[in-house]
Design a protein that fits this description.
5-stranded mixed β-sheet, binds FE2/S2 (inorganic) cluster, Elongation Factor Tu (Ef-tu), domain 3, alpha/beta, 7 helices, 6-stranded parallel β-sheet
């Protein structure tokens, strides 16, 4: 999809205009955009923002703010280019220094809210972006807080912020950094993937640590199971999910999705997410993170057979009224929307 280079419209969701100062190539498929905002932009290390993609802001995508307030010179977004991805393609291939982008206010609960507790930060791939933001802040502002990091990559060339990680490790004795590379591990790196054994051996005080995890869904699911097996309390674990669990879509079974205003019926594959079904049939819906984190796809279901995988931003009252996050709602039978 090709968009004009200057989406010059603020939207209610994304009212903060920022100018692109520089774009840095981090790894073969990851870029960092340094942004200038001429006003105060309030955010906490680890949070994300939605970004308007397109001329009128009809599409938003969520990206981590990889910078750290009070430490980083610019607000930065670090983005992996996904083949066919309209948001990442636009930000990494079309936007140039001097262009403007529009951001939402900062959102998200993936923050270091217990500075008195030692940290264990677990990241894979692009999941390192909020982890770097949090690590910078903890090291500089909470020197008593021990910070242990395990960062998993495919190969050493995929390490995002490679030089900065080395600088931090040299400067801060309270940082214990381990990089795990599946291929071509360099001296000082672990060859292979993170495992329960690695955690057990290298983090003897794991039950005392606050564990923050960010990475692809399978990595997060595995890691959470190891933490449970190692006796880490659930309330010590904070996970950042930007990818919903894979939906199992049935190609040959369909259900009826009914919309009351205006009345319409649509055939939808069983197992679709409500968001996919709405987008397929041009039913208005806003989606940014697509992973049950930001709340922008909140939709009311009057009745039907469905399963939710995240209700993170919904109140108990909204859930009782039938509200769901469309991106995190799998349709299992006929469903009627309000
Ligand atoms: S798009 Fe963010 S919660 Fe659904």
């Amino acid at each position: 999809m090709t968009f004009p280079l200057f989406p010059d419209q603020p939207t209610a969701l994304c009212p903060n205009r920022m100018q692109v100062h520089a774009i840095t190539h981090e790894t073969p498929d990851v870029w960092t955009l340094a942004l200038i905002h001429h006003d105060v932009y309030d955010y906490r290390p680890g949070q994300f923002a939605r970004v308007n993609i397109g001329p009128t802001g009809e599409i938003q995508r969520a990206y981590t703010l990889s910078s750290t307030p009070g430490i980083s010179r610019f607000i930065t977004l670090t983005v992996r280019h996904i083949a066919g991805g309209s948001g990442s393609g636009w930000l990494t291939q079309q936007v140039k220094p001097g262009d403007y982008v529009w951001l939402s206010d900062a959102q998200g609960e993936f923050v270091n809210s217990r500075a008195e507790q030692p940290l264990l930060l677990l990241a894979a791939g692009c999941g390192v972006t909020p982890v770097m933001s949090i690590a910078r802040d903890a090291l500089a502002n909470h020197p008593q807080q021990s910070v242990q990091v395990f960062y998993s990559v495919r190969s050493p060339q995929d390490v995002i912020f490679a030089a900065e990680w080395q600088q931090l490790a040299a400067r801060y004795p309270q940082l214990d950094l381990t990089i795990l590379a599946e291929q071509d591990a360099q001296p000082g790196q672990i060859a292979g993937r993170l495992s329960q054994d690695v955690l057990q051996l290298r983090v003897p005080d794991i039950q005392a640590r606050r564990v923050m995890i960010c990475g692809p869904a399978p990595y997060m699911a595995l890691t959470e199971s190891w933490l449970a097996a190692l006796g880490v309390a659930a309330n010590h674990i904070v996970s950042e999910r930007f990818q919903p669990p894979e939906a199992v879509v049935s190609a040959d079974k369909t259900l009826t999705l009914t919309r009351l205003q205006p009345l319409a019926h649509y055939r939808v594959p069983v197992g679709s997410t409500l968001l996919a079904a709405m987008e397929q049939h041009q039913i208005p819906v806003t989606a940014a993170c697509r992973a049950g984190v930001c709340g922008s796809c909140k939709t009311r279901v009057l009745s039907g057979d469905y399963r939710t995988t995240s209700t993170m931003t919904l109140s108990a009252e909204e859930i009782a009224q039938g509200y769901v996050l469309a991106c995190s709602c799998q349709l299992e039978g006929d469903v009627t929307l309000a």
